[in-house]
Design brief:
Mean pLDDT: 85
Low-confidence stretches: none
Number of domains: 1
Largest sheet: none
Strand content: under 5%
Length: 68
């Protein structure tokens, strides 16, 4: 992941946190949103693409969430 991609994702996450916090119905929901934001920021800063979906390499299943 390039530095430009990281910065774009961090900006997106910050904007999403602000928007979701405004729409939140209570303090607990805001706290949960903040925890999710912190985890996602940590992943992005460590070069992990939070939108990339791959099955675990040690899975006994051929696909994840496909209903099998």
């Amino acid at each position: 992941m390039t530095e430009e991609q990281k910065q774009g994702l961090l900006k997106f996450l910050q904007e999403k946190l602000i928007q979701d916090s405004v729409e939140a119905s209570n303090a607990l929901e805001i706290k949960m949103l903040k925890a999710e934001y912190d985890k996602n920021v940590n992943d992005v800063e460590n070069g992990i693409n939070i939108f990339k979906s791959e099955p675990p390499s040690d899975s006994d299943y051929e696909c994840v969430n496909c209903g099998s």
